[in-house]
Amino acid sequence: MTTSVRYVIADMDGTLLSPDHVISDYTRDTLKALVHKHGVTLILATGRNAADIKIVSNNLRKYIWGEDITLDRPSSPASPSRAPMMYLLTSNGAIAHNAVTHELVFQTCVDPAIAEKLYRLLPDSEEVVNTNVYQQEDWICRIDWPEMLTVHKESGIQFIHVPNAPPRSAEPVPSMAPSGWNRGVAVGNYDNISKVFFITDDEARLPSLAEEVQKIAVSCGGNPVSLTFSASDCMDIMAEGVCKGQALRKLFSVLLSPKEGRDVVAEALEASIAFGDGLNDAEMLTEVGKGCVMGNASPKLKALHPELEVVLRNGEDGVAKKLRSVFGIPL
């Protein structure tokens, strides 16, 4: 493993982030050593949206490469590992960005007709299940729950409270108006939504909601959706085929140059180690050469894939300590 790993892929919440929802100094130091001494490329794969994780990745980028990195600087032949390279897979792989240049690599959105029906599915009186969407840079939700912000400590992202979104407008509406409070779903535009998700303290509500989601997909012409759980209390809905595992394949197919007689995507996946803690990480963990499940992971994930190694919990810097073991870095 030590010499063959070229890519390190990590989920964020419950995995790379500590229980306080930040990247510890120990983990940051580990990632910096992997980049500079071993030429590793970092890929952050999360259910969060791009605007949220961009702030976290910017802080990590500055820590690893410094404040004065030149984004278009070619890698030095004598030290290619020092060239800044990091990628983001957000909304469970619906969107990919170059974390250094912020360039959009690809994006797959939910059918607007499905997104509208999902956002307006629950009644205005609903108090237990909160409907959310990621629409471009915005996080929009129907119920004003400030406690949801505790997991976004480092980025400081805020949600936009839109309790009564109108139906889709018959006339074209700009996706992004100057004010976040008067654009997107708030004015009947359901385009550019990468993920719809339901959060609740009553997990027993989610199975019936999952059935409703499938019915809505059928009612909208049978356009399939991808459904997963980023946490036991959070059900995510993306466009057909969207998951972290497929997003990795797609990212490698875009980034890597073809080589005659070789499957460069398969080679890159085999040269990858990935970490996760939720059911939304399952495809990613089984696609790569080495998949690791966090000690604090969902029991359902552990039961689903008993073949995957279980590492220390996120509160014990499980990702960093496993990486140090793999690369021979002193603990």
TrEMBL record:
Keywords: Hydrolase, Magnesium. This is Haloacid dehalogenase-like hydrolase-like protein. InterPro entries: HAD-like_sf (IPR036412), HAD_sf (IPR023214). One of its GO terms (molecular function) is hydrolase activity. Gene3D superfamilies: 3.30.1240.10, HAD superfamily/HAD-like. It comes from Leptomonas pyrrhocoris (Firebug parasite). Its cofactor is Mg(2+). It holds the Pfam family Hydrolase_3.
